[in-house]
Structure formats: C-alpha cells, structure tokens
C-alpha cells in the first residue's frame, strides 16, 4: 500500500498509490464523521503528509519541488472536502494547511488552479445533477 520515494537528498515521502486517489476522488456526499472509514483514511493521509513535512516549508525542504507540484492541486479541494464531510482539515493537519497556503502563494500554482469557491460551486452542480443532497 505504501511506497517510499527518495530524491537523493535524504528525504522521503510516503505515497499512497491507488487508495489515495480512490479516497480523494470518489464522490461521497453524505455528512461524514470520523467513524466513517473513508474519512479516517483521508485524515490518516493528511497526518502522514504532515509527518513528512515536519518543520520544512515544502516537502523537499525550503524549495517548492516535484512532490509539492503533485499534491498542490488537492489544496483547491480542501474547502469542498471540509464542507461536504463536516470536518476541519486545519484541526486534523495544521501543517498541511499552512503548506497549502504557501503553495497557493506561488504565482504559478495560483494561476494554474481553480479557486476553492469555484470548485465548491462545481460540487453543488454535480450533487444536483446526480440527485445527491
């Protein structure tokens, strides 16, 4: 389930393969609590990422790098995850939220990703389309 990747500088990141995307991308609109397995796994992933960040600004250290590029798109979805699932990512993983804000402060990231409010609007449209409330 987990695979370690190193960049030759001595740091590693635990990457969840298919399960990571399964739990993040599969629509699940019901209000969740921490007793639901998907939310527990998602929070576990956040805590894993938080542990890898440690005291670093970015996953590779002080510089924005490959792992940050790969994970930054999920930051735009945080508001929708929190609203639909009824929990706080900041409470679960404050370092990940701070990292996300730093990523969104990168001009290239901010210009490439949709604003969280736009994503939440899209989620609302999808919920109506599929009759899920």
What do these coordinates show?
There is one protein chain. The chain is mainly alpha-helical. It has a single domain, classed as Glutathione S-transferase Yfyf (Class Pi), Chain A, domain 2 (Up-down Bundle), CATH 1.20.1050.10. Helix content is 56%, strand content 8%. It is built from 8 helices and 2 strands; from the N terminus they run ββαααααααα. It has helices at residues 18-25, 37-53, 66-71, 78-85, 89-92, 94-104, 107-112, 116-129; strands at residues 2-6, 12-16. It has a two-stranded antiparallel ribbon with strand order 1-2. A hairpin with a 5-residue loop joins β1 (2-6) and β2 (12-16). The longest helix is centred in the middle third of the chain and has 17 residues, at 37-53. It is globular. One of its GO terms (molecular function) is glutathione transferase activity. It comes from Musa balbisiana (Banana). This is GST C-terminal domain-containing protein. One of its GO terms (biological process) is glutathione metabolic process. InterPro entries: Glutathione-S-Trfase_C-like, Glutathione-S-Trfase_C_sf, GST_C, GST_C_Tau.
What count of structural domains? 1
Spatial sequence of strands, sheet with the most strands: 1-2
Q: How many strand segments?
A: 2
Mean pLDDT: 80
Percent of residues in helices: 55-70%
Architecture (CATH level 2) name: Up-down Bundle
Largest beta-sheet characterization = 2 strands, antiparallel
pLDDT < 50 stretches:
1-21, 27-34
Helix/strand order: EEHHHHHHHH
Strand content: 5-15%
User: How large is the radius of gyration?
Assistant: 15 Å
Principal-axis shape: globular
Structural class designation: mainly alpha
What is the distance, rounded to the nearest whole angstrom, between the alpha carbons of the first and last residues? Answer: 32 Å
What is the CATH C level class, in words? Mainly Alpha
Compute the number of helices: 8
The third-level CATH topology is Glutathione S-transferase Yfyf (Class Pi), Chain A, domain 2
Protein name: GST C-terminal domain-containing protein
Organism: Musa balbisiana (Banana)
InterPro entries: Glutathione-S-Trfase_C-like, Glutathione-S-Trfase_C_sf, GST_C, GST_C_Tau
GO molecular function, one term: glutathione transferase activity
């Amino acid at each position: 389930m987990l695979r370690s990747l190193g960049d030759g500088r001595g740091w590693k990141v635990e990457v969840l393969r298919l399960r990571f995307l399964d739990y993040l991308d599969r629509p699940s609109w019901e209000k969740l609590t921490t007793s639901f397995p998907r939310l527990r796994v998602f929070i576990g992933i956040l805590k894993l990422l938080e542990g890898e960040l440690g005291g670093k600004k970015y996953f590779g250290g002080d510089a924005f790098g490959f792992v940050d590029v790969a994970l930054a798109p999920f930051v735009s979805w945080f508001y929708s995850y929190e609203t639909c699932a009824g929990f706080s990512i900041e409470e679960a993983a404050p370092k990940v939220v701070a990292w996300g804000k730093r990523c969104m402060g990168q001009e290239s990231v901010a210009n490439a990703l949709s604003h969280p409010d736009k994503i939440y609007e899209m989620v609302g449209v999808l919920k109506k389309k599929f009759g899920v409330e």
